[in-house]
Amino acid sequence: MLTFFDHCGTHVDAPYPFEADGAKVDELALDVLIGRARVVEIATERVIQKADLLALDLDNVEWLLLKTRNSLIVNSKEFTKNFVSVGADAAEFIVARGIKLVGIDYCSIEEITSKAIRPTTLSCEMVS
To answer: Is residue 44 over pLDDT 80?
Structure first.
C-alpha cells in the first residue's frame, strides 16, 4: 500500500526565489515534473552522502525519490529537526548524473540549518 502524509505533493522548490532570475513554478516545463521515477531506499541515519548513491543503479534515472527513515516520522505531530537530508556531495553527484528531479520523504532535501544544496541544484535548474 502506498501512503502519503499531508505535506506530500503540496509544492516543489523551483530555482526562484533562491536565484533571482531562476524559473518560477508556473514557468517550469511539465516534463521536468512528470516522469517515471526510481524509488530507492537508503538506510543512513542522518545525511545521504555520495557514497550512499554510488551503490545504487541510477543509469537512465531522471526522477529520483529517496525513501529513508523519515518515513517513520512523517506522521508525528511534532516537527523533527534531525530528519535525513541530502548532503552537498550527494547533491553534486545527482546533478552530475543529469537527474531532473529529486524528492525525499520529508519536508526538505537539505538540513534545516543548511543552504549548501541550493547553489548546487540551481546550477542545473534541477527541481527538488
So the answer is: yes
